[in-house]
Amino acid sequence: MLEHKRIEKSFNDCSRCIDSSKLSKHNIIAIGINTYLAVVEWDGLDDEHVIIVPTQHCSSSIQLDENIWDEMKIWRKGLVAMWKEQGRDCVFFEMSRHVDSNPHFIIECVPVDQEIGDTAPIFFKNAINECEGEYTDNKKLIETKDLRRQIPKGFSYFAVDFGLCNGFAHVIENHDEFPATFGTEIIAGMLDLPPKKWRKRETDELAKQKSRANKMKELWEPFDWTKRIRENEDS
């Protein structure tokens, strides 16, 4: 009973669930069948720093149904194509921490210059190999082929991909030694950004959020696969 109440409270307090009153709907770029794309509400690593989010509550990609996972990959393909047109590469990462507390997981998507994208795998590989001290029960660096079959359900983990290429994952054993800012800190370092860009995620003022969202909607429009869903619904 207590467990049920705890999970129910995590749903009610969630700012990512599509039906939640706490969701910042002005940041949403487009909504798919089971997922949506939104700009981040904080001062991101780039003005086009976005997140892919399941509409229903889920604490990790490992727990997603196959069709929802496939839909998240469609967003990624569209973003890769959009940024490629700008001459840029991109990094996708997810952090599933404290899965027992049932957080709503997101995939963060950050565009980077092409030369940064080329070196990103080396930076992340080195950082993962150096994390959490010398002794861990699990293999530190997992080269991902199918993330959802390589990480056991119920485990906390970090995972990163580069464009449409598979990347790396790491099972988090000691949360105290693996910061929630792990992914953003590495990318900020590659981009030579100041610490304030990754240390605290303070919500930006509403005008800035809306401005980012409007610009992103314009950029995304030619790649918006969700238009086909709306057209089918109208026909």
TrEMBL record:
GO BP, sorted A to Z: mRNA splicing, via spliceosome
InterPro entries attached to this UniProt entry: Cwf19-like (IPR040194), Cwf19-like_C_dom-1 (IPR006768), Cwf19-like_C_dom-2 (IPR006767)
Family: Belongs to the CWF19 family.
Name of the protein in question: CWF19-like protein 2
Residues of the Cwf19-like protein C-terminal domain: 134-226
GO CC, any one term: post-mRNA release spliceosomal complex
Residues covered by the Cwf19-like C-terminal domain: 3-125
